[in-house]
Amino acid sequence: MHLRVRAAREQDQAEIMALAKIAGVGMSSLPQDAEVMGKKIDRSVRSFAGSPVRPHEESFLFVLEDIENKRLAGTTGIVAHVGLSRPFYSYKVSTISQASSGVGVYSMQHVLHMVNDYTGASEIGSLFLHPEYRRDGIGGFLSRCRYMMLAEFEHLFSDVVISEIRGVQDSAGNSPFYDNLARHFFKMEFQKADYIYATQGGQFIADLMPKYPIYANLLPKAAQDVIGVPFEASRPALHLLKTEGFNYEGYVDLFDAGPTVQVKRSAIETVHKSSKSEVIAVRPLKSEPHIICNTRLNDFMITKGGLEQGKDGVVITPEVAEAIKVKAGDMVRYVV
């Protein structure tokens, strides 16, 4: 199977919408709305062309392409800087200890503070892989492709990179955290609130949610138990993030309380282990597979295939050269 990751194009919209339908509700970065998805793709096209709608607000949407079978098998993406034109909200979970020697009581409370601490951070997301392709390390390849872009075009991104992990939901798509907290203020179902956030932004959060700290122990146990807990289907994605150096620092999503993880861009495993060299030859090889990308923003592509390091550059296979449109004399970035 020959796969590559490339920038989403306008003609990909129907296939991306089909993937969004499979992903289901709760993945706000992959909305099930044709008009919104069209705008998301257009914003990405402009970002890859170097002419974003607003400076520093590039949004890059990738698709995983099965070249042999001529179909799209997944998506992923990067937002260069969140929270610049519309607020990016999180709950910060902190601990407050209180004691009274007079009555001999000591208590420790977890408190949720609504914050905008991640304003300006780069966010990776939109990671979805068709169930038929959840094998042979394909998910890991798709996830790591984002870091190749962070490494190659570091000037476009923040020093801090975050990722929001979907929180716990039941089989009907309901969130116990949302139902016991935000629903009291939004007066709507979780799926509708999530849809509004995905398609219109978070202004209604600022309008309707309380600004005061919320003591978690005052919430029903069903809500307390899922704070910072990932949705079961999202655990593999969280594992991949942790292997790259991402850590949970006590920030959770405002709607479903899923964990937000963060890392310094330069500390990401794939970023600091990747190298850049000139292609000195293209020929068949028997070598360990590498993740390899070209270095052109307007035609950025990544694949996995054979590569050998030489004294003056690297040798790649014809399949790799064709997948990412490079030839001898071009530069590539690569990592095992």
What can you tell me about this protein's structure?
The chain has 336 residues and is an alpha+beta fold. The protein is built from eleven helices and 15 strands. The chain has helices at residues 13-23, 34-48, 138-152, 176-180, 183-186, 190-200, 203-208, 221-224, 235-243, 269-273, 318-324; strands spanning 3-7, 59-66, 71-79, 90-100, 105-115, 122-129, 160-164, 214-215, 247-252, 259-264, 275-282, 289-293, 301-309, 314-316, 331-335. It has a five-stranded mixed β-barrel. Strand 2 and strand 3 form a beta hairpin. Helix 1 packs across helix 2 (34-48). The two termini are 18 Å apart.
Brief summary:
This protein has 336 residues and is of the alpha+beta class. Helices cover 27% and strands 30% of the residues.
Helix % is 25-40%
Shape: elongated
Q: How are the strands ordered across the major sheet?
A: 11-14-13-12-15
Distance between the termini: 18 Å
What string, H for helix and E for strand, traces the elements in order? EHHEEEEEHEHHHHEHHEEHEEEEHE
Structural class: alpha+beta
The gyration radius over C-alpha positions equals 22 Å
Overall mean confidence score, pLDDT: 93
* Uncertain parts: none
Largest sheet, strands/sense/barrel:
5 strands, mixed, barrel
Secondary structure tally, helices = 11
Strands, count: 15
What portion of residues belong to β-strands?
25-35%
